[in-house]
Amino acid sequence: MDGHRFFQGIASQIEALDAYRSADLQARVHRYLDDLWVGLQAVYPQADPVAERVAQVIGQNLAQRPTDLQALDLERIHTPDWFLKPEVHGYIAYTDRFADTLQGVGAHIGYLKELGIRYLHLMPLLLPREGENDGGYAVADYRRVRPDLGSMDDLEALCTQLRREGISLCLDLVLNHVAREHPWAEAARRGDPKYRDYFYIYPDRTLPDQFERTLPEVFPDFAPGNFTWDDEVQGWVWTTFNSWQWDVNWSNPEVFLEYLDVILWLANKGIDVFRLDAIAFTWKRMGTHCQNQPEVHALTQALRAAVRIAAPAVAFKAEAIVAPEDLIAYLGTREHYGKVSELAYHNTLMVQIWSSLASRDTRLFTQALMRFPEKPASAGWTTYLRCHDDIGWAISDTDAALQGFSGAAHRRFLSDFYKGDFPGSFARGMHFQENPETGDRRTSGSAASLAGLEAALESGNPRLINLAIERILLAHAVFIGYGEGIPLIYMGDELGMLNDYDYAQEPAHQDDNRWLHRPKMDWARAERRKQEGTVEHRIFHGIKGLLQARARTHQLHATFSTKPLWQPNPHLLVLKRPHPEGTLVQVYNFSEQDQALPWETLRQEGIVQPYDHITQAPAPAYLRPFARLWLAQHQA
Ligand code: GLC
Fold it and tell me: Which domain holds residue 188?
């Protein structure tokens, strides 16, 4: 693709392109056209006409980009690490569960700021299909807001309000599927051949059966199989998730152009980060499990390059809940290094925190981090303890074998433990999507209930309540202190909110127990954060203190990496953050007993007078149950 022609393609859509904007645009094209072109060519045999239309889509949207967002583009071009800074902390919530409406969210910005939040992920709020809609992940219109939450104008206003307060907004971009009621699917159902090609539709079971041989099932309980017969299209439609979520066909360049336009249109409303939902599934290949195919990364590279030209303020977050060796590709490996998503979920960290809390043993944790691939310096992980989804027990068989036990047995132990079935378990949770064929069992439950607070409160035993709170704070300290990206607090966890068993009363939710950990925000409970001695006060201020400590600890800038350290005590997790200002060594006690500080390890890292960055005081003489310390050599 000729750079000048591509530039002209964009410029022709923009009326008053003065010399400055023209030079700026040329620089962007010069920087990103190659990435775009390589990505497009890897997937589309006729890449040239596609690139021409990409230029047009970029031009049309760039022409509409509001001035304040263009200023933000400029600011972020000069601050490429804006999402890697240690003061950027995230919060995840459903709009209606947090504050009823988008305007309501605006009214609660003070609460988010009090906690130290700089990044807000509001879960699906675009118009979903009516009835069951997978918590909004079945989108019927990408350009309309769910009417009970507000309008597109409200969303735009909220973006502006958040931006003024220094908070960026992340929105889900569901790009693997649309609702059966989305206009593309409706047109396909009416028989329009153009739109039939937006989907995977097969006249009989021949190909679906061949694919099914190697395809796993995401929801074996309530949506078995990967294809759904549809009378209207007279065919089997590819539906990886629910029967009413139709997978779109990314091998069709029209689909690429549609999504690019949607992204840029929403970016012009002020969305900062797009969470690329279920991105691993977007390319299908016979004989594989149809996840993590190389084309997924080529497509993301092309999309991102186009977005960098049209709206450089925008970042991508890949939602790929896959094995570490596959996950790293979502931040870019080899030819895609640093050219795909800026952010991706660190699922392993989350699973290992829960695993070590249950076993009180950190060897598997250290082992898993030892083998975890290094990320590009320009990208970051989002680290978390809970989110709106279930926990899949992604324990690698290799890691388990290296520590001398069975991965399958440990996965079974974890699902039993977190259901509360294992003798001595402190947890209260539920099995999600038990699959008798594979033995796979995932877990639903809120962080606090899984960490023992629900059972402890019921027992009324102050010692158990105290341990549960300390356990919750330890778990938060690990992912907040991990330092390779944005830590995400899941709504309600900052107050220790428990499982919501009422979900079973709601017909649209009762079959999906992920609603167990999707409660409505309890604002009365939130008020108790102001009252010393309450559970809410301890957890809220504990987490807030960790976020404040993170913000002032330079070693936690995400361009630097985290190294696990082996040391002899199996109850301690020790992580190292090498940094020019002095190494930071984090020590976490995963047991209910006091432990000695790992002096030998600290000495080896040059720390003889350890100073704790969390409490801003010299390290204590020993580690209390669930203690967390971020230690550096004391600079007197
Ligand atoms: C993502 C979402 C999950 C949803 C699925 C299908 O994994 O996090 O909630 O069910 O995509 O859209």
Answer: 183-247
